[in-house]
Each structure stands twice: as C-alpha cells, then as structure tokens.
Specification:
The complex is a heterodimer of chains A (89) and B (135).
Chain A: H1 7-28, H2 32-56, H3 61-85
Helix pairs in contact in A: 1-2, 2-3
Chain B: H1 2-27, H2 31-62, H3 66-99, H4 117-134
Helix pairs in contact in B: 1-2, 2-3
Chain lengths: 89, 135
C-alpha cells in the first residue's frame, strides 16, 4: 500500500529548493569553476533525492540508480576538473 | 515508538544542512568559500538523510518485512558512494580552480604561487625568449 503524501515528499520538495539555488549559481557564476561547483552540488543533491524518492514511493530500484549516478557523476566531475587544469592529459 | 522520532530528527537535520549548502552557494563571494558551502554542507546533510532511510529500513525489517533489509543495505551502498566520491571531486575542483588562475578574494599571500602551472609556463616562455636572443 502506497501513501502518496508522507514526510519524504516534503523532504523532496525542500531538496528541490536547494537544487534551484544551486542552479542560479550555475547560470550566474562569473568563472568556470563556479559553475562546476554548482554542478557538483546539484549532483550530490540529486543522488540524495533519488534515495528519498525511492523511499517515498516504495520503489527500491531507484536506490540502485542513485549508486550508479553517483559513480558516473564523479567521473564527469574529475574529467571537467582535469580539462580546466590545462596541460597534457 | 522512539524509532519514528529519531527518523524525524535525522530528516530535519539533513534537510537543514542541504538548504544551508544551497544558500551558502548563493551568498559566498569566492570559488573556494563556495566550495566549502557546496560540498561540506551537502555531504553532511546527505549522511543524515540516508541515515534516516537506513533506520527506516531497519525498522521495517524488525517489523517483519523483507523489503526493509534490501532498503537498508542498498541505501548504505549509496552512502558509501557519496562518502567516497564527494570529497575527491571537491579536491579536484579546488586544484583545477587554483591552477587555472582564480585567486581568492582578499588573499594576501599565495603559498602555492611558485608551484602553480601558469607561473612555470611564464618562466619557460621567458627562458626560451632569452635563448633566442642569445642566438
């Protein structure tokens, strides 16, 4: 039995507010590292959001998606940082 | 039961720190201070939110549901992934920001100046110019 409105849905809405604030930094950021910091924050909050979403709607498969998303976003962050650093790859 | 109150308290702490991270990302003046807010606060909040989900899974398991153990173990895996990847990514971003020439606001002394990439490149350019002039 699935409850549609429980406490985890409220947590999900609060996490969406935090994602919106990080998105403002991604759009506005003066330099390129600012945008990457915003992107990294959005990645972390999306991982937690997937865990909370899977708990709220009783779908355990979303948590596995969160683990894979964490590892892939880590690789993308490292690669963008390596690109910004310059020099030889 | 006291499990429920513990879950609510952990959720409240986690949401507070995540929103604080987003707010600090907007308000701080500098890449490095924004990195403090955007990485430390969200990691700390994520620990508490996933901890509340783990306790919920343990409670479901204790009450006789097999879904609870799967929920707890997989959420612990997600927590380990966050804890391993997030500080490493922050370190890489800070290193890239310093090497690409972004200075902290109001900094007086830069101890990494002589080790930075731009300085070495400039020194190399000056040396090659001197060599060409000598020829």
């Amino acid at each position: 039995m699935m409850e549609f409105f429980n406490e985890y849905v409220i947590v999900l809405i609060a996490l969406l507010i935090s994602i919106a604030m990080a998105m403002i930094r991604v759009i506005k950021g003066p330099t390129a590292p600012d945008r990457i910091v915003g992107l990294d924050t959005i990645n972390t909050i999306v991982i937690v959001g997937m865990v909370v979403f899977g708990t709220a709607f009783n779908e355990i498969i979303y948590i596995d998606v969160a683990i894979v998303y964490a590892l892939l976003s880590f690789i993308s962050t490292l690669f963008i940082a390596k690109y910004l650093e310059g020099g030889d790859f | 039961m006291w499990f429920d109150y513990l879950i609510y308290i952990l959720l409240a702490i986690g949401v507070f720190f995540n929103i604080l991270g987003g707010f600090g990302l907007l308000r701080f003046p500098d890449v490095y201070t924004r990195l403090h807010a955007g990485t430390k606060c969200t990691t700390f909040g994520s620990i508490f939110i996933t901890g509340s989900v783990i306790i919920l899974g343990l409670k479901m398991w204790y009450l006789g549901s097999t879904d609870g153990s799967i929920l707890a173990i997989h959420t612990a895996g997600a927590l380990v992934a966050i804890l391993l990847t997030n500080p490493t990514g922050a370190h890489a971003i800070a290193r890239a920001a310093h090497k690409s020439g972004v200075k902290p606001v109001g900094a007086v002394v830069d101890s990494l100046q002589t080790k930075s990439l731009k300085h070495n490149v400039n020194k190399k350019i000056i040396e090659t110019k001197k060599m060409e002039e000598e020829k």
